[in-house]
Amino acid sequence: MPTCCVHPLPYHADPRERFALVRAAPGACLLDGGRPGADRGRFDLFSAWPEQRLSPESGEDGRAFLARCRAALASLGRAEAPDGCELPFTGGLLGYLGYDFGRRLERLPAQAADDLQLPDAAFGLHAWALVSDHQRQTSQLVFHPSLAAQRRDALIALFEAPATPAPPGEFRLLAPFAADIDAGQYQAAIERIQAYIRAGDCYQVNFAQRFQAPWQGDPWAAYGALRDACPTPFAGYLALDDGAILSLSPERFLSVRQGQVETRPIKGTRPRGRDAGEDRALAAELLASRKDRAENLMIVDLLRNDLGRSCRTGSVRVPELFALESYPNVHHLVSSVTGELAAGLDAFDLLAGSFPGGSITGAPKIRAMQIIDELEPSRRSIYCGSLLFIDSRGEMDSSICIRTVLLQAGQASCWGGGGIVMDSEWQSEYEESKTKVRVLLQTLEATLD
C-alpha cells in the first residue's frame, strides 16, 4: 500500500503563524483545535492549492454530489501513514457543507430567502497538509505519494524559511451588529413552534436568529481576534473569493476512525458566571435541569436513529450522556453516540444519512427542518453546516458550524439559536440565543471607530 512521506517541523501549539503563509492561497482551509487556549482538540491541520475543487452543480442531488466527491478521492488514491506515525489525514478532501446542502438530500420547502448565495458545499482535493499532534507535540508536513517532488521541496522550503509572515491587515466593522428580527417576531416564532408541538407535529425545533453588520479589511485579522477571545476545539478558517468562513465551534458533528463512528451533540446551555461561585452554581443548575436533559435525550435518540442508517446493526451505543463541557462564554451539556460503519458503507454514506446534525434541527428532523424554513426569514447558509475532512483512507472528522461568522461581499453574518420545546420560555430562549454569540459580536464590534 502506498505510504505518505512525512517531513518533520518544529512543534507549534498554535497553527496561525504557519497557516498565515498560505491563508490567501486558493482553497486555503485550516481546521484548528484552538490550542493552547482550548485543550480538547488533539490535531490541527491545514492545506491550500488543491488538485481539484468541487461544488454542487445547479439542481444536482446531494447523493450524486457526494458520489462525485467519493470518485475524486478515489482518483487521488489511498495512502497510509508511515509506521509509528499517527495521522488524522493522509491527503484528501477539505471543505464545508452548508446547512442548505440538506435541501439536496431531503425534500424541503423554499420559503426562506437565499440572500447570501453561498454555495451549498465546497471541497478541495489536497495532496499535502501540515498536521500538528498536540498529544505527541509534533508538527509535520504530510505528502501524499502522488505529489510531485518539486512541489514537496517548495512546500518544505516555504515552511522552513526563517522569515516571519507579514502581519494581518486591519479588520473593522462599519456599524454594530443588528438582528434580522425583533423580540416580538422572535416571540411569535416560538409560540408558533409550541403550537406545532401541542398539535403533535414535532417534539423540538431549533430556532435561530441572524445578526449582520457591514465590514471591510482582512478576515484573517478578524479570525485571530475571535480565536483569542473564544478558543474552541472545532474552530476553522476557510478562505472564500470575497471573504472567509470563521468558525469557533465547540461541537463535533461526525468522526470516523478505522470504521468507528462518533457524534457529540450539544444541547443545553448556561452562561459563565461573574465569579467562581456563580459559575459553579450555573454549571450545577445545567446538570440538574430536567428540561435540558430531556432536550439532550431527544437529540441523542434522533442521532441513534441517524447513525443506525449507516452503522452495523447492534453497534450503536451511548457511552456518555449529559456531560458538562465549559467554554469561555458558556457551559454546555454534551453527550456521545458511537457506532461501527456497516460493511460496504463509508463516510459519504454516513453524511448522506445524517446531515445536517440533529442537535441543530430538532425532532423529528425533517419536520423540524420544514418548520425552520417556514419561521426563519433567511436561509442558514454556513450556519449549522459543517467544516470537515475526509482523507484517502476514508477517515473523517467534522464540526457543526455554530459560533460561526460568515464574511462575504462586505457583510458579516452570525447566528445564535437553541432548541425549543413545550416548556421553553421565549424570553429565556431569546437571551440564550444572544448569549451564545455575544463574545463573537462584541469582539468584532470592538473594531468600530
TrEMBL record:
Q: One of this protein's GO BP terms?
A: folic acid-containing compound biosynthetic process
Q: Where is the Anthranilate synthase component I N-terminal domain?
A: 61-138
The question of whether NADP is a record keyword is answered with no
| Gene3D superfamilies reported in the protein's UniProt record | Anthranilate synthase
The keyword Isomerase belongs to this UniProt entry's keyword annotation? no
InterPro entries in alphabetical order: ADC_synth_comp_1, ADC_synthase, Anth_synth_I-like, Anth_synth_I_N, Chorismate_C
Q: What is this protein called?
A: aminodeoxychorismate synthase
